[in-house]
Amino acid sequence: MRNSKGERLFPGEPFSGEPVWAENLIGPSKLVLPRSESQMKMAMLDPAPGPSWRYTMFNFDADPPRVAKAAAMLNPRNPDLSKLRKRGGKIVQYSGWGDQQVNPFPGIEYYETVSKRFGEKQTREFYRLFMVPGMYHCSGGPGCSSADWLTAVMDWVEKGVAPDRLLGSHIENGQTTRTHPLCPYPQVARYKGTGSTDDAANFACAAPATK
Fold first, then answer.
1. Does residue 106 share a domain with residue 151?
2. C-alpha–C-alpha distance, residues 7 and 84, integer Å
3. What is the value of pTM for the model shown?
4. Is residue 1 part of a domain?
5. Pair (114, 178) in one structural domain
6. How many helices (H) and strands (E) would you count in the chain?
7. How many CA atoms lie within 13 A of 76 on its CB side?
8. 122-138 pLDDT tens trace
């Protein structure tokens, strides 16, 4: 999303959520577009444009300042987590690469902003981000979206055991059909070269490939 000057206002959608985009926009449920449109005209735009406003009327040059008040309350912009860090708090954040409702890129940008403030090594001591390939909004999708997030943060806080790798599972009809490692960002799961690609044991968490 860019304005007429070419300035980026919001990141584009990543690949992998296309099946749900189609379902939510033009399928029988049509969930996301009406909900988003209602939020914009009833809660986000200031002054409120009224019930006749449609999403096609959003002006990418004039309207961004009208959502500044809502953005100040909702957007995670402040990277100063020093109070949380000082009292021993821990953050285990996760997001699905296929999330069709909450774009995953702003969450990554926030984590990177915190890392720049504290340093990457120091940030990993209290804050870790896990990106889940193929996961839709909070769960579901073709990826291995089922993971024990609660135990991960409890073990970190209560036992001092930081989550270096979590086990993600894909469950169909109550049965686990595939497992995959979930790695702390920016690491990714890399196939070791042998064994089933449906078994997490055949992957290792590693730094992403560089060009």
1. yes
2. 33
3. 0.87
4. no
5. yes
6. 7, 6
7. 15
8. 999 999 999 999 998 88
